[in-house]
Amino acid sequence: MVRLDAALAFSALGLGGVLAHPTIKHLDTIKHIDRRVCNLEERNPLVHKPLTSRATIPKATTWDPPASMVTGLDQQTMKENPDGLKDLNWITDQLMVNKGNINYCIRWANERKSTEAARAATVKALQRSWQKWFDVLVGYDGFPLTEVKINVNGYGVKDKSLLEGSTAGLNIYTDVDSDGVPNCDTRCYRGAHLDGDLSGCPGGEQNRYDIYLQLDKKLEGQFGGFGYNWGEELGPDYFLDNLETENIHILLHEIGHGFGLLDFYDWVPEGQTSFVMMAGSATEITEFDAWMLRDWWRKLKAVRGW
Ligand SMILES: [Zn+2]
């Protein structure tokens, strides 16, 4: 928590630079996808401040946001990419296809040692973080799932010796992508096989992964990350030093992008001051975040026929 508080305090001093903007990244298997840049240091310090109390998110069964959020929600709807609904790999899609069972691969793009304890804590941290988003959909507007289960079934690492202790039950990959970043076996990546045909995946369906977490030394010391429906990229120090933190808020923010939610670097929805998708303004998911996700659910549901 000290690190997080320090980051927010640093940001509040306004030491950041220009606003961050989405850029395009080309992956080996997925071309022309958005790579959203999230840097907590690059924001307007006058607008954002951390929450001082726990956010409460009342359960909802239908589209019925509080009056204070209606205008802000309409505004963010107008900014959404209208083609976003055509993307078939949002986290909501992943949840629906896999009935709540999500397999992660960890891309270990750093030179730290990975201990068995840290790997176990990583699964718990991912589970805890996903649960927070998932819970706002449970019981809402026909969302059929009640449980989400996060499983890590692989590590991509340059040198196997970085993985200490038993790696039983894990697929260990030593390939790298075109950028030289340790990669998992893309033949097992569901996002590259949206027709459901994973017959090319060695070991079959059990080795499928839906999403990845990349702990990249390039983000070392930075309170920012990248996120989209392929996964999250974070600094290894930020993530591994906060494994036990209740709200790993940059991770929560990046997962939000995986659901399709946007950044708010250059505008603020009317009446809103603190929510996790407005980077640096909140250290936890708030009710406004919840309603943005519920908005996405009702739209995806309509076009997917769920
Ligand atoms: Zn972001």
UniProtKB/TrEMBL annotation:
Keywords, comma-separated and alphabetical: Signal
Signal peptide region: 1-20
PANTHER family with a match to the protein in the record: CELLULOSE-BINDING FAMILY II PROTEIN
Protein name in the entry: Uncharacterized protein
Organism of origin: Pleomassaria siparia CBS 279.74
